Amino acid sequence: MAVVADRAFTSRSTLQRIEEGDSSVGMGIDATVLHGAGIAGRSGQLADLSVDEVGWTVVDRSLLQRVRLKSPKG
Fold it and tell me: Rounded to two decimals, what is the model's pTM?
């Protein structure tokens, strides 16, 4: 953690906030940390829905299931 923080020119506490998902950390710091970790080249996949397996699983679960209505009696 200290190595990535040093490479990203940020503090370890900021890096910890990023890991915890703190939305108050700026995107510039996020990008710098990705670069410092050596994975900046894959950052384009972050918003790519075709490779987001977890996102598709959530969407599939939230889709409405087919409902069969009972016919009215009488």
Answer: 0.52
